[in-house]
């Protein structure tokens, strides 16, 4: 599953990082998660700039950036002068396989925190949109918002659906990089979720 509140569209960055147990444990932290999102959404920044944006102190910000660097989630862009480091997100997104941590209680706890944190962030962003929606022109407001659809699928067909959705998102992301980035272009967050209506687990095959 992809687990990022925003994927950046910078073609110079690796597409995706599969989280291992250590990376998952490092990322499952409120400030680190926010730092990574900020770098993906708004691009490279110094620790001082990030601290000001996120209302924290530079020392703590620098420490947590180094922790993220240790698991290849962020890196030094090389654009800084002297000791002034300019940080960037190392990958456009990160992902994991839920089953990969099934036998590790500590990793499962980190994954549970991370997913619930993302869910909270998604809800907060949706609330902010509802407050701002009335100010947007109709050609945008009519295309933004929420929706859902119910499908009856097997696990294999659901995997195909995810793959096709990601291919479609990649297609539009690539097109955006080659198009003119004028006033009419905005960053739009698409949130996907596949949740069974019947929570009783199916029998193992």
Give an overview in words.
The protein has one domain (14-125, 134-178): Arc Repressor Mutant, subunit A (Orthogonal Bundle), CATH 1.10.10.10. The protein is 47% helix and 9% strand. It has helices at 21-27, 30-42, 47-54, 58-70, 105-132, 138-141, 155-178, and strands at 14-18, 45-46, 74-76, 86-89, 91-95. A 3-stranded antiparallel β-sheet has the order 2-4-3. The chain has a two-stranded parallel sheet with strand order 1-5. Helix 1 (21-27) packs across helix 5 (105-132). The radius of gyration is 19 Å and the shape is globular.
Spell out the key features of this protein.
205 residues; Arc Repressor Mutant, subunit A; three-stranded antiparallel β-sheet; two-stranded parallel ribbon; 7 helices; globular
How are the strands of the biggest sheet laid out side by side? 2-4-3
Mean pLDDT: 89
**Proportion of residues in helical segments:** 40-55%
Multimeric organization: single chain
The count of strands amounts to 5
What letter string, H or E per element, gives the SSE order? EHHEHHEEEHHH
Describe the global form: globular
Number of domains: 1
Instruction: Supply the number of helical segments.
Output: 7
């Amino acid at each position: 599953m992809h687990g990022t509140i925003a994927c950046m569209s910078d073609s110079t960055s690796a597409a995706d990082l599969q989280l291992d147990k250590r990376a998952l444990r490092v990322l499952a932290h409120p400030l680190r998660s926010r730092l990574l999102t900020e770098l993906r959404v708004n691009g490279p920044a110094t620790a001082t700039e990030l601290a000001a944006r996120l209302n924290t102190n530079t020392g703590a910000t620098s420490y947590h950036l180094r922790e993220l660097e240790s698991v290849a989630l962020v890196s030094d862009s090389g654009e800084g002068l002297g000791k002034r480091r300019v940080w960037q997100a190392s990958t456009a997104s990160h992902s994991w396989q839920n089953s990969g941590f099934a036998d590790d209680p500590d990793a499962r706890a980190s994954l549970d925190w991370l997913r619930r944190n993302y869910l909270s962030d998604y809800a907060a962003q949706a609330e902010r949109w509802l407050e701002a929606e009335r100010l947007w022109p109709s050609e945008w407001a009519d295309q933004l918002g929420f929706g859902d659809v119910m499908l009856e699928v097997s696990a294999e067909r659901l995997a195909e659906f995810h793959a096709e959705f990601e291919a479609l998102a990649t297609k539009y992301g690539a097109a955006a990089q080659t198009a003119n980035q004028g006033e009419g272009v905005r960053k739009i967050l698409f949130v996907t979720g596949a949740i069974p209506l019947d929570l009783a687990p199916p029998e193992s095959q």
